[in-house]
Amino acid sequence: MIILDNEAMKVSVIIPCYNHWQYLPEALNSVLSQTHKDLEIIVVDDGSEKQPDGATIDFIEKNKITLIKISNAGPSVARNRGIEAAQGELILPLDADDKIDSTYIEKAIIRFTQDASVGIVYCDAQYFGGKSGKWELPPYNFPDILLDNYIFSAALFKRTDWQTVGGYNANMIYGWEDHDFWLSLIELKRTIIRIPETLFYYRQQTESRTSAFTSEQKVEMFDCMVKNHKKLYAENIEYVAHRGSELKELLNAETPEIELKRQVQNLKDRINQMESSGFWKMRNRWQTWKYSLGINSKHENESKK
Known about the structure:
Oligomer: single chain
Radius of gyration: 21 Å
Largest sheet: 9 strands, mixed
Number of domains: 2
Shape: globular
Strand content: 15-25%
């Protein structure tokens, strides 16, 4: 059932920028070339140490792009500040060094207008910059997303849902703020749609914020996600425990291919984060109590069949 006129939906594109002024024009041009024209662009300067050159400032002013300057606070705060100033019904966060296909917003709006329960729309993605080729993202699945994020940051969502959940959580100071935010929308029981077309382009760089993540920071961020979504993790504690055991078994497999080795290393890192977290300690207490009463989980029963 069509619930809204596609052309009547205003979209706000929020672009936090920290020192990536050299890439910003490419990101802005990809938005300005959209086939859906009812949109606004808000760039949030997240306390950059570098300043944009005159040509970039002229480009921003010429295209009536809003520029907001804040003290450095990280992507969560920068996105929230931009969305606070936004007028659109739909929000698209876009990093300053990435870009989108000219039809992305139009095709995403169609999904929102066809089903009122839709809360997140994203698409297939491709690398560019330091790496090329398709970004092989597994399909979205719950509760798998409790352990790993399959939705990149440049997905569209409703501004009203952002208001309902209180925006991006500012305690995600080292990263994974998009993963944490998707969990907030999932808690609203929203439908998630992936458009089966490559409409998002992710710039791969040798040095990035996530690549500088330390093990200690990853453990802290995993703990923060659990604290931010206590009910969601508590309701799925047996799945998380069972999945952790499965991943450990996978690590013992032979992995001759370079890409598979990389994936297994990522799994190993994720397991280390889980087992070092406060959530895992809670899981161990639950396991001890469960076994003392002779209770088997449905996941354990299924694995024995």
